[in-house]
Amino acid sequence: MRFFRLFKILRVVIFYGLDEFLFVRQQNGGLRCLLGILFFWRRLATPRAERLRRALETLGPIFVKFGQVLSTRRDLLSQDLADELARLQDRVPPFPAETAVRMIEASLKQPVSQLFASFECEPVASASVAQVHAATLPDGRKVAVKVLRPGILPVIESDLALLRTLAGWVEKFSADGRRLRPREVVAEFDKYLHDELDLMFEAGNASQLRRNFAGSEQLIVPEVFYDYCSREVLVLEWMDGIPVSQIDRLRAEGVDLKQLSKNGVEIFFTQVFRDGFFHADMHPGNILVTPQGQYIALDFGIVGALSDVDKRYLAINFLAFFNRDYLRVATAHIESGWVPADTRPEELASAVRTVCEPFFNKPLAQISFGLVLMRLFEVSRRFNVEIQPQLVLLQKTLLNIEGLGRQLDPELDLWQTAKPYLERWMNEQVGWRALLNNLRTEAPQWAALLPGLPRRINELVSHDPVPLLLKGYAGLLREQKKRNLWLGAISGMLGAAVLILLSQRF
């Protein structure tokens, strides 16, 4: 099966003339001439951008999603490619409405005429995994009905199998393969993609994001109608708004684009650092804007989640970058385990400074984060930085946010917009507010532990306390990274107790 899928990919590449991209540097060389002779039957009068889009659509949902991400990176693409790939965001060819109706009725066990007061057969949007129809509930509320594409699972399984094989080859034969951990990255992609194929996961994601931003003046999340949902069908509150990519319409409505771009950055950092739960598919096709300047989020199939440890080290790294404290960037990477423990912080700091320093104090229009990432990749190769699979979605989302910010306000200073928010967040994590929050969080646990504390102390002193204290000290040191500064203080006291006992013994 994998061989046939690989064969199909090669056939599509040849049919649509994508070798024009692969061998662009040899356009006047012998290889280009040889390809022209071998494939003389091709008719490549269609513009290259349209051929690329049609090839990605032919290859299926994984490749369409790749094109969606590329479409947001106008700093890395020519104008014709960026404009054409943008059509992948919501204009993938739809499947027949009759098929959608059959799937809805089979999944919800009722005729569409009984489920909805009205149902529009013409889809309002068609994407790589599903398409959306407008409908009205019996009580008159307008809704969006999302229906999975039929037969999509076998195609995705085939593509994922091929990606796993390719990842294995990269890991085995590439010098960077083990450090990049491609198989783990593919496994993460596999998980999120399968979650996207179960629309009940998307329903839960939408509900969580809606709770997180309840009452927000910056972001609106539609309501989920669970009585009409299943694994194949999702019914959401209908949202009216202007696609965020239609800049002229936004201006005509009087939307403040500069403020809108700043709000987008703040929404991103709020999701990441306040909630540890973020929308990870933020391409322009999934975002609308109200005339009042509020964002409307759509399509919740892919979300990311971060642990407290991830959030802490990310915030430290961001703030260190903003303050140009490259030594702190280096030590944070070492403390988090992202680079080998024997790495010299001064050398890593010098390498990061070389990459990042030229890009500061410039507006977003003059900064290519794609170029920064490529340069940082060169640094990571030198210092054996391990790619963190749990952060892959975050990196992708950050690139999407950059692309969105570039379209809304080319002069946006992403660093200065994000820095005050991160400083507030760090103050809440390590200041007196953090102390109060930790006390509230830990109070139930202390209430359960304190009544039994005298008995445990008695058991401890009736035996040799040193091994037990050493074991507890080591355990608390491990937990300190996962919890809070109180555990660090307790582990320090246990360490002191061990030293006192040892000094009395010897």
From TrEMBL:
Pathway: Cofactor biosynthesis; ubiquinone biosynthesis [regulation]. It is an enzyme of class 2 (transferase). The lineage of its organism: Bacteria, Pseudomonadati, Pseudomonadota, Betaproteobacteria, Neisseriales. One of its GO terms (biological process) is ubiquinone biosynthetic process. The chain crosses the membrane at residues 485-503. The gene is ubiB. ATP binds at V124, A125, S126, A127, S128, V129, A130, Q131, V132, K146. This is Probable protein kinase UbiB. Belongs to the ABC1 family. UbiB subfamily. Belongs to the protein kinase superfamily. ADCK protein kinase family. InterPro entries: ABC1_dom (IPR004147), Kinase-like_dom_sf (IPR011009), UbiB (IPR010232), UbiB_bact (IPR045308), UbiB_kinase (IPR050154). Residues 87-332 form the ABC1 atypical kinase-like domain. One of its GO terms (cellular component) is plasma membrane. It comes from the Bacteria. It is a single-pass membrane protein. Its EC number is 2.7.-.-.
